[in-house]
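Sorry to interrupt, but I need a hand with the structure work. Go ahead and set the record down below:
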Amino acid sequence: MSILKKEGVGRFKHLISIDELTKEDIIYILRLAEKFEPIAKGKKVNKSLEGKILANLFFEPSTRTRMSFEAAMKRLGGDVINMTAQEVSSVAKGETLADTIRVVGNYADIIVLRHPLVGAAKFAAENSIVPVVNAGDGAGQHPTQTLLDLYTMMKEAKLEGSKIALMGDLKYSRTVHSLIKALALFNTTIYLISPPMLRLSEEFIEGLDTKTSKVFEVSLEEVIDEIDVLYVTRIQKERFPDEEEYRKVAGSYVITLDLLRNTKESMIIMHPLPRVNEIATDVDKTRHARYFEQAFYGVPIRMAILSELLDGNG
């Protein structure tokens, strides 16, 4: 069932997983974000969420996700409260996540949650009296990142029928886990490129809906001249159970100017950031780099999500 058809103030009640969205739902959110883009840039004013409060509960570090949610809420006239220092909260005293969610729901109109455990956002939604947005649950999903990624492709390249290479840490990246499921809805050709230790599991690939898309495991050299999008991720050091295993793959891939010599002029490079050393800094000045624009697009996308959850008028 589409989350855009659940009961709530707007068209959906929570945003926990990209799996809950149909293709039509996704397109609706992307088009709504387009309407909010001038407001996100400060060119227009919209105070539709005035009097509303967003609570950011981040049990893991975040810069772009947390700040873009704050920017989105404030651009719409709302306010924000934050819990980012776990060591000075009641969590450090042993308070359960369920109790934290119940308490914060009395202070705010919506909760944005990042948590290291897969399934934490779903659990939070089940215990919340206000809407919950999943801002990343361990190596699980990151649906708002996926929506801004799709929006970037729509704005800067193309989405329907595109050829997209997903490169890097495909095993632990929640960004990739959400994105690949959404891309499968848009008649895409998806190329998976990663060190052997960081391959997407066969179980995950077999679970994809590939009725309209094709998925291949390749090397970058095989497809660099035909892809429309190169989506690069960092190695998720914090997800490795053994640091020695991380060291074996650290620095195993880097996008350089030399690698881009035979690409299509229109090809774009994306990265959810933060970047470590996966993309050489001199690539930033090329026509291909779109990762900083990608970061900005998080604001209109999150404005669209907040508006639907809290206002419902788009």
In short: The two ends are 21 Å apart (CA to CA).
